[in-house]
Amino acid sequence: MRTFKFRAWDKNKKYMFEVIGISWFANHSSIWQVSGYDILEPIDNVDIMQFTGLLDKNGREIFEGDILEVNLTRRDGFCGKVVWRNNGWRIKNIDARPIKESDRIWDMNHENMLIIGNIYESPELLEGKE
What we know:
Elements: E1 6-10, E2 15-23, E3 30-34, E4 38-42, E5 46-55, E6 61-63, E7 66-71, E8 77-85, E9 88-93, E10 113-118
Antiparallel strand pairs: 1-2, 1-5, 2-3, 3-4, 5-6, 7-8, 7-10, 8-9
């Protein structure tokens, strides 16, 4: 069975947190977070990212928005960010090394993937590359 997990980036406070629940109401939606105690945060204040169900070579959970270094062979590798596109998790190339943007993350050897940051806490990894 697949595990559904989410994390969120608080746009105002500039920090990442684990989402433990989402409340949907007609006039107000909010998410629950863990920070020593439960806090309700308005949904408009955050960007939500889903867990891909995959782990990198160090056993870290890979989420949407993570930036990965992928080494396909000793001489062939690239960096890319995890995105949901065309009904699947894919890696969008952010450097000049060749890869088809349509390559699905599921088709790659996860032992060759390393999380080096994410689009919020490590934006310098994307500078001039998108």
